[in-house]
Amino acid sequence: MPSSRNPQLNRHGQLQHLLTLDGLPRDILTAILDIAAPFTEVAEREVKKLPLLRGKSVFNLFFENSTRTRTTFEIAAKRLSADVINLNVSTSSTKKGETLLDTVDNLCAMQADMFVVRHEASGAPFLIAQHLLATGRDHIHVVNAGDGRHAHPTQGLLDMYTIRHYKGGFEHLSVGIVGDVQHSRVARSQIAALTTLGVPDVRVIGPKTLLPTDVERMGVRVCHDIREGLRDVDVVMMLRLQNERMNGALLPTAQEYYKVWGLTAEKLALAKPDAIVMHPGPMNRGVEIDSAVADGAQAVILDQVTFGIAVRMAVMSMLAGQ
Amino acid sequence: MFKLDAEALCGALAESMRPHVTAKTCLVGIHTGGVWLAQRLHADLNLRQPLGSIDVSFYRDDYGTKGLHPQPQRSEIPFDVVGAHIIIVDDVLYTGRTTRAALNELFDYGRPAKVDLAVLVDRGGRELPIAPRFCAHVLDGPLPANQSLQLERCPEGTLSLRLANA
Known about the structure:
heterodimer, A: alpha/beta, five-stranded parallel β-sheet, globular, B: alpha/beta, Rossmann fold, two-stranded antiparallel ribbon, 27% strand
């Protein structure tokens, strides 16, 4: 088995699985965004369906809770005419002790064509992809819908789609990513995509306890002062503050976090006047973002959700067509 | 030597369509050559309905073997399909599979009253029961499969037909 190959690409260099944006070639990233554009138009038709995945079975395999991501994957697959099977893992065999790969093997025996996987363990989708390759089932595709702290590639892609939609490109932008980068798979995918697409100025903004120690190596600038970090940015990407982080010694209280790091209109005024505000959801209003900003004219948070459907359609139709 | 005057054919096609179109007739060009041709016909025939365009990438029947076209265009149908008289416009008619894909896509916008097909050249080699109502030129014999016939448009807007090895 060739181990030097990017595990997401087949021997022709085409996308076989989508596991991470880290190391994904720029032309593939751009191709996904290009293909997603015409998919946005399907939502305006009487019949919101395309025949591309007709007869294919897509299994949503969510070992971790999610509403938005699972739902938009489901809508995307259904708009492509796939049969979608949602596995409710809380009542599944995993609870009875079945291993991840045994679950996968069983679903393969039910003629699965694609797995959309969310798992609390980083690398779980990669493990499944390797297992499929090792067992000669390379007609089955894996899409990572978020694994541990590692990656959330479709979120990163829909964020790039949103930025390109509003800003027209990447080469001239300043982008600030604010909040808990340390525990965020979303941030890792965003950083990988932004740097690959040639954004010259990516800033990660947050308290020392919530930024990875060697984050500069990802090609970003570190700011421990939100006012300095937001100055003249074109795009503000807020991250969700995971409430469970409050319990450790990483943070004092939600109120204090909001006071220092929460995005308010006053702090947003430091960014460019036409800066857009993004958030991957779910939002904690009054913790990382003020309601006036979340519902304000610069917020594109709900567009992110809509674009997410088109981007996921693009990814699934690219994979299934290889 | 292959010699077809696309400009002359375009004019002839418009004349053959003229008696059969009304102010309500809608044109839908198939990307990319069909859109150029439809733009020309739309102007020549003085049609009032906005021009539609279709990219059939998402409806092709060879997706399972060839995958997705790398740069699909947005389909735009800027009129109400329900009850409309629509003429699908393509540059070259070959197997008929593109026309079938366009029909399938069109019907996802609604149920037209009538659909016709207009093409510049019929190159033969049909694989489906599809025939154009308007066709400016039929090749004497079918072109071999390893050859492609395509409409091209120079920057000044002049149309030409190019024969190449596929």
